[in-house]
Amino acid sequence: MSPRSTLARLSWVFVLSAAALLGCSVTPLGATEAGIAKARSAAAPGAELFDRECSSCHGKQGEGLTTAPAIMGPGALRTFSRDDSSSSSPSYSVNAQAPIDVAHVPGQAKRPPFRTAQDVYDYVSTRMPMPRSRAGTLKPEDYWAIVNFMLIAHGAPVPASGLSEANAKSVELPH
Predict the structure, then answer these.
(1) What global pTM score does this model have?
(2) For residue 49, what pLDDT is reported?
(3) Which of 19, 57, 152, 171 would give a disulfide with 68, using CB separation of 3.0 to 4.6 Å?
(4) How many CB atoms sit inside 10 A of residue 7's CB?
């Protein structure tokens, strides 16, 4: 075997090993396939509304696209917002939660903490969908359906009967 072919083979081994290591260390974005499937089954109306009203900015799995933050899966729905100035991907963001008065969407009012399903509903129902001229334009039952879908996919302990104004304050978000 010539030194040139040995070097070429070693180069390929190095490239493949590096790719395997990097692939294993990437933070998955968005809800898992199992979480999405469970949410689609348990909250079909919310899944349809999410696809129509939310996924173009937040992604099919809530992973966050362009400047829209991740809203399902690891790193999403943090108690306080994180600094997304460099990317909407939690894999590029500092893992520590920033105080509410430091990390917020530029040009937008600071958001309250996300601790319960009610907190998410209150935020979504008054600020979404974007652009701002469309914020708050869906029916309350549509917002509940979307939040129900999101939180099931995210892994929150949503009651079998779904979310409503009557139980949303008791549903705590997993962080």
Answers:
(1) 0.72
(2) 98
(3) 57
(4) 10
